[in-house]
């Protein structure tokens, strides 16, 4: 005979990695009155009982009990790559909002100078700080160190950090790349004039359409005719 069971009689196995409702606490809730447990983050002791100091999920590691907050600010560590927004230009430093508990700091000595020049920062560089980065600019940076109060010191000394490339700049780069591919596909010489003419001829088409065979042929042929006219 078939073994038929009611759904109510089946036993469900709880995923031990998924926090249950029973483990949720709010500030002031009693977690345990057993004094053999150690107090961890998000807890405090009162009247020989362990209480939650934040709203979150109770986690236990051996004899250590802590409460992981449901919502918290970013706690940075050395080597983290962060995206932040400049909120203030100060004396030889920028204040950066990285969604952490305290504002992060980007020192003038921790950024690349234009052209990658390596030298000590001068008073002239300090006057040009707002030219490099100003309020509301987005930057990517790496956490260089963590101060004793938990605030972060950032740096952008690598070329992969700094201000993100704007949408307009990305489109120019993509169009230039497609023009070079079109010239190469038609076995045309690559030099500054041919690339510039091809770029100008491609402006009436969208960037993604340049590599379509019929449009590529038209753009390159216009470039070829223009170059031939100059040699006459």
Description:
With 232 residues, the protein is an alpha+beta fold. It has three domains: 24-69, RNA polymerase II/Efflux pump adaptor protein, barrel-sandwich hybrid domain (OB fold (Dihydrolipoamide Acetyltransferase, E2P), Beta Barrel), CATH 2.40.50.100; 80-155, Beta Barrel (OB fold (Dihydrolipoamide Acetyltransferase, E2P)), CATH 2.40.50; 167-231. Helices cover 25% and strands 27% of the residues. It contains five helices and twelve strands. It has a five-stranded mixed barrel with strand order 8-9-10-12-11. The chain has a four-stranded mixed sheet with strand order 1-6-7-3, with no helix packed on it. Strand 9 and strand 10 (104-111) form a beta hairpin. Helix 3 packs across helix 4 and helix 4 crosses helix 5. The radius of gyration is 30 Å and the shape is elongated.
Number of strands: 12
Rg is 30 Å
Distance between the termini: 97 Å
Regarding CATH, which class of the largest domain?
A: Mainly Beta
Range of strand content = 25-35%
CATH topology of the largest domain: OB fold (Dihydrolipoamide Acetyltransferase, E2P)
Query: Averaging pLDDT over every residue, what do you get?
Result: 85
Which residue ranges are poorly predicted, with pLDDT under 50 across at least 5 consecutive positions?
1-19
Count up the domains.
3
Describe the global form. Answer: elongated
What strand line-up does the widest sheet have?
8-9-10-12-11
The fourth-level CATH homologous superfamily of the largest domain is Nucleic acid-binding proteins
Family: Belongs to the RRP4 family.
Main location: cytoplasm
Keywords: Cytoplasm, Exosome, Nucleus, Phosphoprotein, RNA-binding, rRNA processing
GO molecular function: RNA binding
